[in-house]
UniProtKB/TrEMBL annotation:
It is found in: Cytoplasm. Bidirectionally degrades single-stranded DNA into large acid-insoluble oligonucleotides, which are then degraded further into small acid-soluble oligonucleotides. It comes from the Bacteria. One of its GO terms (molecular function) is exodeoxyribonuclease VII activity. Pfam families: Exonuc_VII_S. Keywords: Cytoplasm, Exonuclease, Hydrolase, Nuclease. Belongs to the XseB family. This is Exodeoxyribonuclease 7 small subunit. HAMAP family: Exonuc_7_S (MF_00337). One of its GO terms (biological process) is DNA catabolic process. It is an enzyme of class 3 (hydrolase). It catalyses: Exonucleolytic cleavage in either 5'- to 3'- or 3'- to 5'-direction to yield nucleoside 5'-phosphates.
Amino acid sequence: MENQGQNTPGLEKLFARLEEVTADMEKSDITLEESFALYNEGMQLLKQCNETIDAVEKKVQVLDENGEVHEF
């Protein structure tokens, strides 16, 4: 599910890149500077994921047994 009308990548792409960053950080030949850069990128990716999930949660509504719509 892509973000409609926005220039940000979808959750699937964010999670895929986050997995790549994690794998790169686990490599034994990585420098400290590279490790810090990857950490920062990972934190930014997590922030984007959280913002996207929060936006989706705000849009989700629940239909109760009386047929009334409520926010999730």
